[in-house]
Amino acid sequence: MGEANQLKQRGVKGLDAKSSKSHPDVVSTPDNDKASKTKPTRFLSFVSTPKIAILIFGVFFGHMILPIIVVETSNFMSNSDMSSAKQPSESSTKRSLRILAEEESINVNNRMKHLIEDKMLLSTQSLPTDRAPLVMETPRLSDHRRKKILVTGGAGFVGSHLVDKLMMEGHEVTVVDNLFTGQKKNVAHWFHHPNFNLVVHDVTEPIHLEVDEIYHLACPASPPHYQFNPVKTIKTSTMGTLNMLGLAKRVKAKILLTSTSEIYGDPQVHPQSEDYWGNVNPIGPRSCYDEGKRVAETMMYSYKNQNNVPIRIARIFNTFGPRMHPNDGRVVSNFIIQALQGKPLTVYGEGEQTRSFQYVSDLVDGLHALMNHDYDGPVNLGNPDEFTMKEFAEYIKKLTKSDSVIQFLDKTQDDPSKRRPDISLAKRVLGWSPKVPVEEGLTKTIEYFQSVLDEAGEIIPTGPGASKPQN
Length: 471
Ligand SMILES: NC(=O)c1ccc[n+]([C@@H]2O[C@H](COP(=O)([O-])OP(=O)(O)OC[C@H]3O[C@@H](n4cnc5c(N)ncnc54)[C@H](O)[C@@H]3O)[C@@H](O)[C@H]2O)c1
What we know:
Low-confidence stretches: 1-48, 73-87
CATH topology of the largest domain: Rossmann fold
Bound molecules: nicotinamide-adenine-dinucleotide
Largest sheet: 7 strands, parallel
Oligomer: single chain
Number of strands: 13
Number of helices: 14
CATH architecture of the largest domain: 3-Layer(aba) Sandwich
Order of helices and strands: HHHHHEHEEEHHEHEEHEEEHEEHEHH
């Protein structure tokens, strides 16, 4: 019996004798073309089989139903067990935190690195401030070359410029100042620097420090301010100088006193040289200052002669420049402030009295040269360019392009009629002479006072009477 007939007998539907040729078990014959024509019929019969239906259901179940069941089951699990639900999100939070912490630690390290670099940079320069806008470099000196230097009155006008010079040489500088006429902002650009210290202290009280050199400047220098408390002024020059000499003696330091052209009083010789003994009223309104400085010079020589203290004495003539106190009542600051505000320039007397003016950087160079020289007699430091006060008022008007009028007030008591230094000794011994022309120095000072006025608004200059310094 043929195979087709056998299949037929076994009850396999849809197979007749011809179709038996397309059955896998059926060997293919050249009649395949006929067989292909029968395919639709055979496919339909194949779909209708229960196996295929099960297969389709399986595929449908696997692709559509099973994923839904898995998702729903996992939702159910996550809802039913909160602790196991937190686990995956907590670990991702931990990972995020760990990454953040790593990043933060890198940032902190970088910041520390920058801080250290900044700190090293800061330790070699000043910070720019209104009073000292230019950044000043300080070298690193080896220990044996770096000196410990005390500057009394270092927060004042001259002192703060001297501090700049010493810091820029790489020394360790300690300022002792009671801030009577000085201002912290004059030295604020050094506050961060490891070589700088400010001690707010009155020199009329003893102080114990270890220093190699002392520049002793502490003393108010403008007539209205030193006349405000004359007893204190004489104490500052006498007790203050004694205290500094005692310190110099104890620690074997060199000490320089900033004396003044005022020790010549109303001079009878002109110009004034160091061998002139002066013409000073011992009981007038200026004597607390003039006689105070004279006795301070005497003390310096007594300590030198009796105790071998190395001393230097600078007799300073009128000095001007940035950081002068705007209310100190001295002629340069008063004229400039009056001219810049269009106020009358006030001249005391007929304006025929003469003064000569040096720029502050020249004075600082002179003080430094004197300290570092072994000459221990008094030395004049000033600029011999001489002006009558009337000429000087006109000069300031011209430089400030001001329309101010010149107003003549009563002459003040004991106002010297002439003042001009003979600086031949400083030239010969120290090789020092002023370098900055008066006009150049005045231009810088005018710029400075303009900035002070921009900040302060109106300034009413201090008149001739005694007055307390204003901030
Ligand atoms: N600038 C000048 O034209 C001139 C002329 C001659 C002499 N000098 C002398 O130069 C020095 C500095 O003068 P300046 O123009 O810078 O004056 P300044 O008033 O600006 O400075 C004097 C400094 O000494 C401080 N001081 C005053 N009394 C003190 C005390 N008892 N204890 C501690 N500190 C005290 C002040 O607070 C201030 O910082 C002074 O000794 C002055 O006599 C200056």
